[in-house]
Design brief:
By secondary structure, the protein is mostly helical. It has helices spanning about 1-20, 45-55, 60-70, 80-100, 105-115, 120-125, 130-155, 160-165, 175-195; strands at about 25, 30-35.
Length: about 200
């Protein structure tokens, strides 16, 4: 009986060596147990899993970030079309709600997130509730409203407050000339006032 068992083991090892099945193992009873190797996940599949998880958690910012990251990995946006639409429209719905509530700083950031992942594919673009032109117009509106608020503070002599309001524009509207000029002007006035009244709160 021992000879037969040894013979079986030797024969099995020989078969393994010939077939090159390095993933095949023997169970305690001497029967063959094979491991089926799973194919590696594609970048699109990995991105999909992450985006779906972030959406389930209600984390739109991370979902948007993952869509951006998938572009850098050259993942075809059509392979994530349903998620692209869902994330984009959720961001735009929230932005529309916040702009209606006159929360222009928050709305501007949401519109920017949606614009940054705006799809290149025309068919996919048609699934979004706003076009690129409409989103850009909303960004302009948010910046204009914050400019007005800052100007009111400026005219009231509240230069620090004015600068703070205008600085909220840059994260969603980089290189916005009117706010950059206004900030430079107000900050220069603050420096001049500091020279005239050193140590005095402005």
């Amino acid at each position: 009986m021992r000879v037969v068992t040894c013979f079986h083991y030797a024969l099995l090892l020989l078969l393994l060596a010939i077939s090159g099945c390095s993933s095949t193992q023997l169970d305690p009873l001497g029967k063959m147990a094979t491991k089926i190797a799973r194919p590696a996940e594609t970048p699109a599949q990995q991105a999909r899993q992450k985006i779906e998880r972030f959406l389930a958690e209600g984390n739109l910012v991370q979902a948007q970030t993952e869509i951006l990251a998938s572009r850098h990995k050259e993942v075809d946006e059509i392979s994530l079309a349903d998620l692209h639409t869902e994330v984009g429209n959720q961001l735009l719905h929230k932005a529309e709600q916040t702009i209606s509530a006159s929360q222009f700083n928050k709305a501007g950031r949401l519109y920017r997130l949606a614009l940054d992942i705006y799809p290149k594919d025309a068919q996919l673009q048609s699934t979004l509730i706003l076009s690129r032109v409409e989103i850009s117009a909303r960004l302009e509106q948010c910046a204009d409203e914050l400019m007005k608020s800052g100007l009111m503070a400026y005219r009231a002599g509240e230069l620090v407050t004015a600068v703070g309001i205008w600085k909220k524009i840059d994260p969603f509207y980089p290189n916005h000339s009117p706010s950059e000029i206004a900030i430079t002007t107000a900050e220069q006035q603050l420096k001049n006032l500091e020279k005239l009244s050193p140590g005095k709160p402005l």
